[in-house]
Amino acid sequence: MAGVDDSSKKTLSAIPLLKTKAGPRDKELWPQRLKEEYQALIQYVHHNKKTDNDWFRLESNKEGTRWFGKCWFIYDLLKYEFDVEFDIAVTFPTTAPEIALPELDGKTAKMYRGGKICLSDHFKPLWARNVPKFGIAHAMALGLGPWLAVEVPDLIQKGVVVYKEKVV
After folding, report:
1. How many CB atoms lie within 10 A of CB 24?
2. Which of 2, 17, 64, 158 is the most buried (most CB within 10 A)?
3. Where are the chain's structural domains?
4. Nearest-angstrom CA–CA distance, 70 and 121
């Protein structure tokens, strides 16, 4: 794939490509697309656990139109955890999900209102070239994952994000 580094290619190889081009308004085909989305996510999470790279949990509402969960980033052996959420647009899969980390809203320039992470330069053109083959797992792997890897260490170093100890 042109413009994709070796690490991303390896990650992509662990995520099945999707076949059904359907969004939430497509009552006939959306259940099939949603099934493919879940299968791809399950396979990607399984791969991440196997390669000791487990970094997110996601679930959706019954309709598969609203997704939420947790993502985390390990920095200096400390786990920084964030809520993650996004809606599936009616134009999905033509339009990529706009992934949001609400608690980081306003803390970095690489974010839009509501905590939506900026993916326009690199990810959105790649998504557009791969409709309908890319899905939610791809958005996590090629969108949120790299964004966390760049932004979180910077936010920690600047003191904008501070470690919160979990009270058990």
Report:
1. 17
2. 64
3. 6-157
4. 25
**DSSP code per residue over the chain:** -TT--HHHHHHHHTSPPP-----TT-TTTHHHHHHHHHHHHHHHHHHHHHTT---EEEEE-TTSSEEEEEEEEEETTEEEEEEEEEE--TTTTTSPP--B-GGGTTS-SSEETTTEEP-TTTHHHHHHHTTTT--HHHHIIIIIHHHHHHHHHHHHHTTSS---PPP-
pTM (whole model) above 0.90: yes
What are the residue numbers of the active site?
118
CATH code, residues 6-157: 3.10.110.10
Cβ pair 140, 56 in contact under 8 A: yes
51 CB-contact burial (10 Å; exposed 0-12 / middle 13-18 / buried 19+): exposed
**Residue range 113-162, pLDDT digits in tens:** 899 999 877 788 999 999 999 999 999 999 999 999 999 999 999 999 99
Q: How far apart are CA 18 and CA 38, in angstroms?
A: 10
Rg (CA), the chain: 16
